Sequence to fold (470 residues):
Amino acid sequence: MNKCKKVLALLVVLVMLLPAVVVTANPLNSPEDNHIRKVLHMPMGTNEPYAEFNFQFELVGFGSTAANSAGRVACADASCVVVDCPGYFELIFGDEPAIDDLYVEFEPNMSATYRGVNADGTIYTWQEVLIDLDDIDWPHSGRFTFAITEEHDTNPDIDDCEYAFLSYSQAVYHMNVYVSNCADCDDGTCTIAGCTGLYIRYKTFYRIVDDAGEPEVPPVKVDAGEGEGGLAFTNIFVQTYDPCDGCGEDPCECDPDDKIDNASLYISKTVTGAGSQQQPFDFNLNLTIPSLLPDFIVVGGVNVPLLANGPFRAYLVEDGDVVLDASSDPVYIELNAGANTFQLRHNQSLHILGVPIGTVYNMIEVGDEDFAQSAVVVQGGATVAQTPAPDFGVVEASVLGSDDNLYVNNGLISNDTQNLNAVRVTNHFDFETPMGVFLNNLPFIGLVVLALGALGGLVALKVRKRGEAY
Fold:
């Protein structure tokens, strides 16, 4: 029994001595939590991509605290001195404090993200990740400076795709961590209750380089507190509908039926009433591509034109099938950013491929006085405007009829659902002459008039002959 008591007493002594050799920062006295914010700027109508963003920490400087600026560096036992130290010194190899990479993941319709609208009409979404330093082993007290950067090219499915664009931030932040001895404050006399070894007294953050890679002169001090967003890395994301459901496949080589199922926008024409179903109608379509798009992306060190800038193939569909020419090739036209023209007749539609999400379009159907025009605008599968205009609340798109033309203004190509951005135009033949005579019946009316004239002449001739007989 006495032996067991001695062993137990020894264990108690060891446990009591253990905190004296621990040199990790004391979480009880750590400053407030700090966060990295990842921000995505996207055109209106864009959803978050499946993407991961990594943040790296590199130790780039270390030195004495402000209290020991003459070169005195307090160690764990508050006894050592670095002679002639100019403020920075080399650590023994293997003693560098290391911070693991942090990462943020995005996926469509994430509830953890925060959204808003920028002044230029683009949208932004963001997430934050905690910088956790509680388990870092600090070799001694002093100032430790870490450079925080974003790793590039972490999303190959997007990075190498001509139908999407994702930028990476070139920003560089410096995080200064000031580590002190629990028993060695500025005046060398104070102590912190419950503190043993080292603790993080405070941290400061500075932006050294901005998102575009431009140095900040002087560096900008930022607030990295939770919800403050000072330590932010901002990326741009723009996407389009991939016509062939895969960036590795040539979009011009896949089956035309697959193309129309993945159209960015389609415009259809229906003629009702007694009007000719063979009559073509003229359309003007203006496409405004998102300004966030660059002219090219870099793939394997080579500049590749971004197909999301156009030209865009638009396939003609009639009665649900892609129209083929005499050589059995699908009929298409090419549209560009800016003004375009085309024609449609009854039961035809134009399926436009590869237009970036967030593109705004304005469409005009040139009017015909014999037809009454109407249209329904569908955005992401939901009707957002039509004539006659119901109450859809506040929407961007609008349909107007004036000057005998039909106008669709501020239509938006949204990526909520593929092939469900549409303008469905209906023309109803509804024309009467001022006298109430239909022009289409004029040939028959002429025959009736001629017959009545002949009958009248015959009657007059008989009356004349009868008069001569008397």
Helices lie at 2-17, 156-159, 256-261, 442-469.
